[in-house]
Design goal:
Blueprint: E1 24-26, E2 33-35, H1 36-41, H2 57-60, H3 74-77
Length: 86
């Protein structure tokens, strides 16, 4: 029988830290835990095993380009002294 009794370790069980959802992702290929910012920087590819995570539809679409300007009418673009205006 020991002379001193060791107190049980309780840790910080009553102080649970709040962690936002979706901040860390576990790679199904290698099992590494990867931060969301690191995944965005590597275009959703695991830096350890090159596993490609799925992309959502808006993320996989290319950005929209601005619409083309209004076309210039051909007849008004010719100078008045050209041989085609006769």
């Amino acid at each position: 029988m020991p002379i001193f009794k060791k107190p049980p370790f309780r840790g910080n069980a009553d102080k649970k830290r709040d962690m936002p959802e979706g901040l860390w992702h576990k790679c199904p290929g290698c099992g590494e835990v990867i931060h969301e910012l690191e995944l965005k920087k590597s275009l959703r590819v695991c830096p350890h095993c090159n596993y490609h995570f799925t992309l959502s539809a808006p993320a996989s679409k290319p950005p929209r380009t601005p619409p083309n300007p209004a076309p210039i009418p051909i007849n008004n673009a010719l100078p008045s002294g050209s041989p085609d205006s006769n």
